[in-house]
Amino acid sequence: MSKSHRRIATVGLYQGRVSPGGPAGTLTDESMNDIFMPHEPVTAAAPQSQSAKRRAIAFLNLAHAIDHFVLLIFPTVVIGLEVVFKRPYAEMIALSTAAFVAFGVFSIPAGWLADRWSRRNMMALFYFGCAVSLTAAGLAPTPMMLALAMFGLGTFAAIYHPVGMAMLIDMSKARPRTLAFNGVCGNLGVTLAAGISTTLAAWIDWHAAFLVPAAVCLVTGIAYLALVPDDRHHIGTRSTTANVVLSSRAAVTTFGCYVAISLAGGLTFNTALIALPKLVDERVGEGVPLIAVGWLATGIFLCGALAQLAVGRLIERAPPHLLFAAVATVQFIGVAWAGYASGAALIVALAVAIGGIYGQTTVGDIVIARYTADAWRGRVYAVRYFLTFITSGIAVQLIAQLYGRGGFDLVLAAIALTGFVMMAGVYVMAVAVNGAEAAHRAAQVPAE
Questions:
Q1: Cβ neighbours of residue 151 under 8 Å, at least 6 residues apart?
Q2: Is 233 contained in some domain?
Q3: In the chain, N or C: fewer CB atoms in 10 Å?
């Protein structure tokens, strides 16, 4: 074979993902991992470009961990702040309402700015904004100042999900394992928040629980600006075609279902996460030290990380919309079980519930990306996370009101109800997109 023929064959193998020994255009198993975007053409600058992408993905993974970590410092430390500020739990936990409302509301402008200005620069703002807000929280002399600092933290923390997810899908070509690992990083943030925050508060004081993460955010932000290049030149060049194209009817149904899924799922997610440390403290057993409560909660959250790794593998083998329905079912079963359990059985039930809660977030993001073009993903994820996280403020108030009236029996009953609504919405969406998914799979099968 001549050199020119070998060059043509090599480029065709790379761009068309031709299987060895198969007809032109046959998809390999490896190419199915690249489920949303085609590979970039081979160029001399490819190694440097891939290196830059790997660095950016590493920072996005770290940002996901930080995002969930910083928002769960207060719900853990608040158990000790009841004594510091001499206020009851119901009143103290309500101070974080503004933070969780901001976490949802400000995702809309964050996604819009990222698509029109710079996703990279918005992520830099995330790091530095969180650093300033955490410092203010750690130095707050009164509950009111603490609430204002938490509002600032929610505002800057809102940047990650609409911006970071759009960047991650673009840079990773939406490989399920990459997205699942990113979800695990977010889970690790949740997992470590309870244990690390209570440890810092016990070994030093409650101020350190905020100030140490503030220093981490500041240092990471400086490194991010130095190592990740600007991306403003990419504006206007992103793909406008979705991987799986839905009919008008299926698109409208899916949109309506995702409104219900995001609202009910967000309420389930946030209520369970915010209430979990106090729930463990109250129902596992009398006389359990605060540090032990924090690390028990950490172990339960770790189950969510393991579930996301499993989901990342399953997405490569099962239709995502059907897997979404299965994981939503597991979530509901775990939450309903927790309502009747105590002691060791409660730990197991919460592990199942948290596994389902975090598993459905991973597969849910992938399902959305299948039906959304890259040019619109920042704004679409902004709406998705606005609906999901706007319920954070509702969750805080729900916990405060229901706990004050009937303890965790009422809180868990409410979580089970929202979990059921979400599960029903996922079932309807799965039926709506099933035809388009079947047509998409048929198109991937090579002709005889």
A1: 98, 99, 102
A2: yes
A3: C
Q: What is the pLDDT of residues 225-238, one digit of tens each?
A: 988 877 654 555 55
- With vertex at residue 124, the alpha carbon angle to CA 99 and CA 93, rounded to the nearest 5 degrees, is 15
Q: Give the range of the structural domain holding residue 347, as residue numbers without chain letter.
A: 49-444
Does residue 293 fall inside a structural domain? yes
CATH of residue 355's domain is 1.20.1250.20
Residue 355 token pair: 């596994």
pLDDT in tens, 146-183: 889 999 999 999 999 888 887 887 777 657 778 778 87
Total number of domains in the chain? 1
Q: Between these two residues, 231 and 303, which has the higher pLDDT value?
A: 303
Closest CA to 372 of 280, 240, 238, 272: 240
Residue 12 lies in a domain: no
Is residue 23 included in any domain, yes or no?
no
Q: Tell whether the model's pLDDT for residue 44 goes beyond 50.
A: no
